[in-house]
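Quick review question:
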């Protein structure tokens, strides 16, 4: 395995600094947008995103529904761009997430939402982008240039921005304090060594990644990164759902990564991990509650909504190293490019 440091590795190492830069540099914009959401008192929220950005939106969905009592729905961008349908979104807030802020379908849906009466907020890594211009509030996530095709620091900064936005909207001072502590915890997370996973993945073309609640969104992001960087088929499931139809695929040695945060779902995730291990699966879990599954090192943040984010940082560090272990360059995945502008 080469000692050459990839763009992806450099960008993973930049995550703690990027998160701190976001909280400092865009703090005023996040507070202003949060105050506007509180003033509008929306009846529901909608999100618009694709790919890793949609995983941010799913993470935000759980965070809002668990703490603010508002239902959150993911809106298909093609509703506006392809089908030309007009949604009745008056009385809502719309969160659009896009690294480039240029994808025509995301921009079209944000414009349509604003025209229908929604308060629109954009999370983007490109100030002055079409999406930023189309929205009532534009939050620059300040991740800095990201050269690797696989999004890492932009995912984390978008998720941090989403949590900060919600914290300001709901006056959640505990979450704001937890976010201040997060950059140093993300630094620790980079150092968590998950290479014990590697032997379980050798020769396998498929695996499950499990989560529940906010960590379900993190599991979806991890599964995508396995595909992008390691050319491996990975499927993300809720730990509850995997015990139904997907269980038919689990046999001796089948690899399972279970991403458990320190929240109300942790006992059920540990129980699912142990149940799969009892069926012969090769299960790894980020929880000390598991008895039969292999335990992975993790950083606990002390807050249930920030706790999933160090998990994805530890995973990013692992998956970059594992891609190189497989003889692949995680910076140049087959068939992919950095910006995809869908209609």
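Suggested answer, residue by residue:
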């Amino acid at each position: 395995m080469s000692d050459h440091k990839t763009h992806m590795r450099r960008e993973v190492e930049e995550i703690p600094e990027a998160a701190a830069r976001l909280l400092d540099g865009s703090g005023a914009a996040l507070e202003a947008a949060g105050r506007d959401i509180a003033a509008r008192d929306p009846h529901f929220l909608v999100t618009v995103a694709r790919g890793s950005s949609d995983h941010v939106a799913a993470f935000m969905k759980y965070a809002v529904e668990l703490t603010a009592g508002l239902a959150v729905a993911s809106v298909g961008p093609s509703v506006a761009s392809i089908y030309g349908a007009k949604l009745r979104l008056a009385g809502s807030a719309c969160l659009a997430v896009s690294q480039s802020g240029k994808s025509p379908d995301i921009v079209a849906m944000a414009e349509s939402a604003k025209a229908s009466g929604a308060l629109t907020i954009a999370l983007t890594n490109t100030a002055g982008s079409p999406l930023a211009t189309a929205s009532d509030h534009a939050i620059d996530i300040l991740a800095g240039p990201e050269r690797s095709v696989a999004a890492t620091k932009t995912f984390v900064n978008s998720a941090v921005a989403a949590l900060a936005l919600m914290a300001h909207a709901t006056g959640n001072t505990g979450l704001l304090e937890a976010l201040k502590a997060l950059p140093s915890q993300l630094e620790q997370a980079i150092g968590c060594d998950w290479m014990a996973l590697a032997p379980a993945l050798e020769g396998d073309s498929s695996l499950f990644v499990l989560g529940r609640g906010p960590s379900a969104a993190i599991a979806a992001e991890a599964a995508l990164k396995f595909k992008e960087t390691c050319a491996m088929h990975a499927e993300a499931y809720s730990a509850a759902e995997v015990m139904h139809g997907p269980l038919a695929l689990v046999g001796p040695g089948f690899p399972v990564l279970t991403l458990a945060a320190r929240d109300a779902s942790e006992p059920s995730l540990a129980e699912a991990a142990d149940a799969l291990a009892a069926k012969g699966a090769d299960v790894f879990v980020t929880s000390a509650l598991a008895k039969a599954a292999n335990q992975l090192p993790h950083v606990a943040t002390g807050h249930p909504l920030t706790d999933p984010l160090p998990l994805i940082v530890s995973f990013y560090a692992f998956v970059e190293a594992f891609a190189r272990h497989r003889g692949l360059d995680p910076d140049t995945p087959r068939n992919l490019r950095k910006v995809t502008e869908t209609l």
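Why it works: The CA atoms of residues 113 and 258 lie 36 Å apart. The beta strands are 44-48, 72-74, 92-98, 119-124, 137-140, 206-211, 233-238, 255-258, 282-285, 294-295.
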